[in-house]
C-alpha cells in the first residue's frame, strides 16, 4: 500500500510552459506547451486569438506533443487567462 501512495504523490504535478522566442527584429513568438490531452487545443487557440487580438496555430511536435504558437509577446495575457 505504501508504494501506491508514493507513485500518486510523485505524478501529481504537471507544468504548463509559456515561453517567448525571438524571431527577427521586434517580432517574437509565444509558445504554450504542457496543457495535457484533456483539452481541445483548437478551442483554446480560438479563445486566445479572440481575447488577445493576435494570430496563432497549433503545432504537433514529436517530443513535446501539441504546442500552441501565438504571434507577439503574450506571456502575461496567457498566464492570466489560464489562472482565471
UniProtKB/TrEMBL annotation:
InterPro entries: SUI1, SUI1_dom_sf, SUI1_euk. It holds the Pfam family SUI1. Residues 16-83 form the SUI1 domain. GO terms for molecular function: translation initiation factor activity. Keywords: Protein biosynthesis. Probably involved in translation. Belongs to the SUI1 family. This is SUI1 domain-containing protein. It comes from Taxus chinensis.
Amino acid at each position: 500500500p505504501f508504494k501506491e501512495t508514493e507513485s500518486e504523490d510523485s505524478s501529481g504535478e504537471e507544468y504548463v510552459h509559456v515561453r517567448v522566442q525571438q524571431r527577427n527584429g521586434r517580432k517574437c513568438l509565444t509558445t504554450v506547451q504542457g496543457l495535457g490531452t484533456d483539452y481541445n487545443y483548437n478551442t483554446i487557440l480560438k479563445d486566445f486569438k479572440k481575447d488577445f487580438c493576435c494570430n496563432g496555430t497549433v503545432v504537433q511536435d514529436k517530443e513535446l506533443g501539441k504546442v500552441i504558437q501565438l504571434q507577439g509577446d503574450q506571456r502575461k495575457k496567457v498566464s492570466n487567462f489560464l489562472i482565471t
